[in-house]
Amino acid sequence: MGEELSSLGVRDLQGLENRLEMSLRSIKTRKVITCVIHHL
Questions:
Q1: pLDDT value, residue 6
Q2: DSSP one-letter string for 1-40
Q3: Is residue 13 a contact partner of residue 5, using CB atoms and an 8 Å limit?
Q4: Cα(15)–Cα(10) distance, integer angstroms
Q5: Which InterPro entries match (predicted)?
Q6: Alpha-carbon gap, residue 29 to 40, rounded angstroms
Q7: For residue 5, what are the CA distances in angstroms to 11, 18, 20, 30, 33?
Q8: Which of 2, 12, 27, 34 could form a disulfide with 8 if both were Cys (CB 3.0 to 4.6 A apart)?
Q9: What is the reported pLDDT for 1?
């Protein structure tokens, strides 16, 4: 990462957005699972 975003096209930006959303979803899921495990 850390590249200049202005040089990316719309498709590249959409792909990046999708990857970021999937990563965020994965992190949130892991956080919830960890919380549930700690409360068992």
A1: 84
A2: ----GGG--HHHHHHHHHHHHHHHHHHHHHHHHHHHHHT-
A3: yes
A4: 9
A5: TF_Kbox
A6: 17
A7: 12, 15, 14, 29, 34
A8: 12
A9: 59
Distance CA 17, CA 12 (A): 9
Tokens describing residue 31: 């956080």
For residue 34, what are its two tokens? Answer: 């960890």
Could you read off the pLDDT of 1-40 as tens digits, one per residue? 566 888 889 999 999 999 999 999 999 999 999 999 999 8
- The Cα 21–Cα 13 span in angstroms is 12
